[in-house]
Structure formats: C-alpha cells, structure tokens
Design goal:
- The protein is an alpha+beta fold.
- It is 43% helix and 17% strand.
- The strands form six sheets. It has a five-stranded mixed beta sheet with strand order 2-1-3-4-5.
- Helix 1 (18-33) links the parallel strand 1 and strand 2 (38-47).
- Helix 14 (406-431) packs across helix 17.
- The termini are far apart.
Length: 578
Amino acid sequence: MTRFAFYGRVSTEDQQDPQASKAWQLSRARSLIEPAGGEIVAEFFDIGLSRSLPWKRRPEASRLLDTIKSAGRDFDAVVMGEPQRAFYGSQFGITFPVFVHYGVSLWVPEIGGAIDPGSDAHDLVMALYGGMSKGERNRIKVRVRSAMKAQTELEGRYLGGRPPYGYRLADAGSHPNPGKAAEGKRLHQLDPDPVTAPVVERIFSEYVGGRGMTSIARGLTQDGIPCPSAYDRARNPHRHTEVWETTAVRAILRNPRYTGRQVWNRARTDEVLIDVDDVALGHESRHRWNHPDEWVWSRTASHSPIVSTDLYERAQQTVKARGTVGEAGKARRRSRHPYLFRGLLRCGLCGRVMDGSVNHGRIYYRCKASRDYVRQHEIAHPPVLYLRQDSITDPVDQFLAEELGHNRLSETLRGIAEASHRAALTEHQKHDEAPRLRQTIAECDAKIERYRATLDAGGDPALVAGWISETTTIKKTAQARLGLTEVPPQRMSEEQIAALVDAFGGLLGLLRQADQHDRAEIYARIGLQMIYRPGTGTVLAEVRSDKIDPGNKNTATVEDDHRVPAWCPRGDLNPHVR
C-alpha cells in the first residue's frame, strides 16, 4: 500500500467554506489513489492564502516541502484534489523538481495518476493548469473591480470598510443580491454622526480660514475633543492615540466623501517582486495612492454631505498653495539662509526631522515637542532641542572625506553600479520588444518555407504568391522595428568608476569653496543621513547608497567608533540639555 500526503488550499477569493472545500478536495484525491491501493496518512491544507503566494510563503505548503526533505517522513507520494489551487503561474516548474530530487511522486486527477518527470505532455498539462489558475485569479480581480466601479458610479453604493470620521453607518434596505438577502444581509449608507460631524465642519472652516493643520490639531486636543481613535475604540482597535495628530487632520481635509458623493479607487494595491534576482520569492503587496484623475465618483449624491463641494475645493486649493501635499508631492521649501542639513538631520529622542532656524545670525536645527506629544509617546523630551550648524559642519566633511575616499568609494560605486544595472536591465526587459519580434521573424521564415513547399507540391501559384507576399511584408516590418529597439543598458565600466572616484575626490576638496546652497544639494544627493543624540552630544552619520539607487542594499554606516562629534550650544538657547 502506498502512503500519501494530501495537499490542498482555499482562500477568501474562492468564497467557499474552508471545511467544505477541504472535504471535496480530499474526496477527489481519495477517488484517484484508493483504486491503486493508496492511503492518505498526512494532510497539509492552507486556509485564507492567495494562490499567487509561492509555496515557501504558504505555511502548510512550506511544511510539506520541509517534510519531503526529512528522512523521517511517513509518506512516499503526494496527492492533490485540484492542481489549480496548488500551483499558480510557473510555480509547478519551480516546485516539482524538489519532489523529483527526494523521490516523492506527485499525483493529480488531471493526469490520472503520478506525474512523469520525463513526460513533456505531463509538463505541458501542469503548465497549462498553472496558467489557468493565474488567468482565473486575474478574471476575478477584473470582475470585482468592474463591479465596484459600476456600483460606485451608478448607484453610489457604500462598499464597506470603516466609515470616515464624522459619519456612522445607517441601514439602506435589503441587499439586491437574492442570495445575500436570504442570509439577512442588508445594504448600508453613510449618515452624519451628530457628535463628530460638527468637528469635521470646524476643521474645514478653520483650515480655509488660514489656520494650519498642526494648530488645528492642537486646538482640538486642548478643547478636549477626542481624536478619531479615542472616540471609537471598537472601530480603531489598532490605534491607541489620545491626542489629535496633524496626519489625522490632513486625512480629513483630503477625503472627498465629506461632499456627499461616494468615491472609490483613491488607492490601489500593487504587487512588486520581493527580489528581482530571485523571482521564486514571489511578490509583495504595496499600497499606493492614485492620482485624483483616477478616482471614481458617484454621479449623484449618495449620502448627506458634511461640507459643501465649494468648501472642499477651497481646502484642496489651500493645501496646494501652502505646499503641504501637492499633487506632485511635498513642495520644496526655499530659503535665503543656507541650511546645509535641512531634511538630513533627525532627533534621536523622537525620530522626527529637525527644523532649521536662525538666532542671532547663527543657523540652528531644532526639535520642538509639545506636552501632548511627549505624554502620548511617553518619551523624555525637552520642549526644544537645539543643534548649531557650524558645530558639525567640519566633522561631517571630515567623515565624508573618509567615507567617500578613494579606497572605500571604489567598492561602494561598484555595488551601486551593479544594482543600478540590474534594475535598469529588468525595466528594459519589461518593455523590450526584441524577443517577440525575433519570434515573429522566425515564424514568418517557417511559413514562407511551408508556402514554398506547397507551391512545389502543385499548389495554386497565384494563391501561394499572395501568402508569401503578405508574410514577407510582416517579416520586413518586424525586422525594421527590431532595428529600432533600444540597446540593453550597459554596466558601468571600471574606467568610468575610476573617473567618478577622481571626481568625488575633487568635489569633496572643493566643498568649502562651493556655494552654500549647492553644498546642501551635494549632501542630499550623496545620501547623507544624521541622527542627533543629545544625551551623548554626538551625531550618528551615514551615507546611504540607496538614495542613489533604492535597489542597492550596500549601505555604508558609521558605527559607534566613527561617530561625528557634535557639541550642542548651551546657555539661553537650550537650557534643558544636559
């Protein structure tokens, strides 16, 4: 009797009861192996996981692989009830060689038994089911998104999720889906909350009236108005904030649903490769904001507005004018003072970026913390911390001269060049038409040969000549496009790296003679990052190469014995620092 391990999977996208799904997958697996004298002695079943996840990132699938590699396993083969639930895209080609290596056979109903590692037909069938699995998931995504777009635009339907602060959920009648209506499910709509809706109105009015977001947040806290998470703990179990934050005020000001119209597709989830050099690791989800032009608005009002459309639009124009969060990102601040380290220096107590300021003609960087912030985050932070710019400028330049000197810079640039080349090559391959064009040319050559064979066999000369002419035209078009395709990006040569090293050496030598604004730009572009530690009177500095290339992991960090010393000014400016 052959001993089998069973593997199956069910996810939320399947919309099935996990127990019922496991039962029918097990039943199908047993129907395959029992006539051959097989018996299932171990079960591995993943619940609530997408089929797009690689096996190593599924708990039960990963446990199955570990068991296969174990000398003490108690089964000789693995059986699946449905391969589409187990393998997605090219996962079979990545996973099956492990089975073969450890001598474990894989049985699937679609093959009618065990998969033959040497059979091209079996490999083709499994690849086909992997492609079908990927296609099915994509079709589900398209259907769901299309339905949500239509429900928002045409019906203004509330699509779920936590209602925005200022609203509460109200019953909107029975569910239009008969099946869901039979289960007692009902539609909901947004209804202004009599307690919090006036707070939203106040935020919009004060902001358009000229008050800043931080000032508004401070005023709400001082007036004893609970912040969103404090007002409704049950709806915000993941937050424990007691005071109003600027981010909460900003989120309210940017939410268009306060105008009474339903808005969908403000954000999206992208799947990006975890490691471009190891595709088998699969993808991870990244949540990103969409441009307002991509938002989907309901054609008519779907719920009672809290603010007028005019007030909302005025708030958005104010946001852009103040440069807080414009459509193109955070606006760059301009100043007549040469702040060399603006945006590059953080407070070691709270982690926030220290602001530049001028006092008695000298440039300082300061970190201010309100009593509310200190109490909320439970940190020992004085009201204001100061650090004088000229006290750290020379030590920072000395650190850069050591960190970006000829010996270390060459190695750093090689790592950056290699990572940059890999990223550029990957991007090039995404849009490279050359492989497809070469395939088209080869197919055209094969067709022309077949047409000539047909002509030699007595085919109609006029008809065959037309085929050849048409195919030749396609071939020439592909050849012309192939000649216009971009050349793949080239890796930086050693000569170029050497030239950059020399340029950096000269650049660092001219830092003190450079214009102060240009100098600040240099610090930012080379990836200088610093943390001020007032307790020890030091600044921890590092040059992050990922500022140049986000894909590069070679970060040169200044350890404790290479810290840049920084002395904080004493006296009236900073009496609280010890």
